[in-house]
Amino acid sequence: MNPRIVIIGAGAAGVAAATRLIERGYKNLKILEAENRIGGRIHTVPFGANVVDLGAQWCHGEKGNVCYELGSKYNVFDSNSARYERFVLTRSNGEQIPTEQSEKLLGLIWSILETHKHELAGYRGSLGAFIMGKFRALLETPEYADVNNETAYQVLEFFHKFENSIEASDSWFDTSGPGYLHYWECDGDLLLNWRDKGYRTVLEILMKRHPLATSADAINLEDYTHFNKTVANVNWTAGPDSLVSIRCTDNTVYDADHVICTVSLGVLKERYQTMFTPDLPPIKRNAIQGLTIGTVNKLFLEFEKPFWAPDWQGLSLIWNTADLEEIRKSPDSWMEDVFGFYIVDYQPNVLCGWISGKNARRMERASDEDVRKACVFLLRKFMKGVSIPEPLRFQRTSWYSNPNFRGSYTFRSMTTDLLNTSASHLAIPLTNSCGMPVVQFAGEATNDHYYSTVHGAVETGWREANRLIDLYDRKAHL
Q: Where are the coiled-coil regions (predicted)?
């Protein structure tokens, strides 16, 4: 049995599927990749003293996390030194909110999410409405009598931006309350970095090129990959000789018995109506419309040397009302959603800013120079009394503008609830009249509980590779 298999996309799911198939002897395989590199939303690039991750950055958790299981054999992890749950909140006039106050308020919000899970599971509404309701009620209790109301809502708004960056939502009023609980957190350290090697390490491990690139069983996926190939159409009832015919935008055509489609949900949303012939079945269209992908971007600044104290971990931004009104009148009003700048491990001179949602998409339309200037403006505005030099280098991400991604990662939105859909609907293969899978779907968006993560994507690549391996094992035994 030597089926022709085409994998669309060389991101984590595509690499996981391809390496598993090749290991099991399925070498009649091609990968069509729209970018000029392997990795997809894993994109490790040289910057500063080492590398930075423009996409996936941390291994989130240990138990049940396949990336951790792959990497822990090689001792490639370190715990992140910036602890994101312990923010030092700074106002736009340079004043810090007293730690005792900010920790009390942030603790209150975390506790709402922790202690009311059962209630949230049965809630019919958004995550934002649920948190706001609880927050308001708890602020009225004697325990919070000493808390200034304006400060309380400023801290809540900061947390809202932080939460949007975790979900990739434009607003927590878009995030489904019960859907928020669909995501499963892996036990263990949730912020493990890959030291000074970056997330591409996991791809090297999958390709058996780590720790030695030249090991005897290394898989050179580049030999199987056709780069700069954007798929225009997948005809999945092509005919008896070739079950599937794939046409790229450069008019090259690839015939296959099976296709594993790993493109991002953003690409599916934009192109599903023309990308598949015949049209996708209603359950699949419903899933593409109902699941949601958002935008989270990073802003990297390299300085000649640190201007911050040795124990400083970052700057979290809280806007005073007058400053916010002023910033909203400026051409760079997207700045209001940069919620902080934080240190980057193994990068002594680099800060990383974070922005998500609508303003992250607006930021992508501004020039590199305008965005760089805006970052320096924010640092100088919030860090009063500190002399902040011009950065040596600047690099930002633009996951939404890139036509090969159209977003960062997926979440469960109010639309997901409304259309009553799920990742498992997106994962259902398209089959021929004999019930044979001809087009399969993988990628983080097709994972029920580990969506938005690399470990979720890798699992789905293995799932679809195993589907074919099991199919041909059964045929061999008939």
A: none
Angstrom distance (rounded) from CA 407 to CA 294 = 5
What the block records as the tokens of 169 is 């939502």
- The DSSP call for residue 12 is H
From CA 227, how far away is CA 210, in angstroms rounded? 23
Identify the residue whose tokens are 């489904």: 176
Residue 221: strand, helix, or coil: helix
User: In angstroms, rounded to a whole number, what is the distance separating the alpha carbons of residues 332 and 351?
Assistant: 20
Q: Which two tokens stand for residue 186?
A: 């892996």
- Integer Cα distance of 451 and 61 in angstroms: 14
Output the average pLDDT for the chain: 96
Tell me: the pLDDT tens digits for 290-330?
999 999 999 999 999 999 999 899 999 999 999 999 999 99
Contacts of residue 310, Cβ cutoff 8 Å, sequence gap at least 6: none
In DSSP terms, 254 is beta-bridged to 246
Residue with tokens 């799932």: 463
| Contact criterion met (CB below 8 Å) for 265 and 445 | yes
3-state class of 427 per DSSP? helix
Q: At what angle do helices 99-115 and 127-139 cross, to 10 degrees?
A: 120
Helices (H) then strands (E): counts for the chain: 16, 22
Predicted TM-score (pTM) of the model is: 0.97
- Host H or E run for residue 431: strand 430-431
DSSP summary character for residue 90: E
Helices 282-290 and 265-275, packing angle to 10 deg: 140
Q: What residue has token string 């106050």?
A: 101
Distances (CA, A) of 107 to 81, 103, 155, 168, 312: 20, 6, 11, 22, 21
Residue listed under structure tokens 């240990």: 62
SS3 44: strand
Q: d(Cα 383, Cα 388) in Å, to the nearest integer?
A: 8
Do you know the residue count of the chain?
A: 478
Q: Which residues pair with 353 in a beta bridge?
A: 299, 341
CB 366 within 8 A of CB 332: yes
Strand partners for 413 = 175
Tokens of 318: 């809280």
Return d(Cα 55, Cα 62) in angstroms, integer.
Answer: 20
pLDDT bracket for residue 87 (50, 70, 90) = confident
Contact yes or no for 113/94 (Cβ under 8 A): no
User: Could you read off the pLDDT of 90-117 as tens digits, one per residue?
Assistant: 999 999 999 999 999 999 999 999 999 9
Q: 3-class SS at 119? A: helix
Q: What are residue 276's phi and psi, to 5 degrees?
A: -125, 135
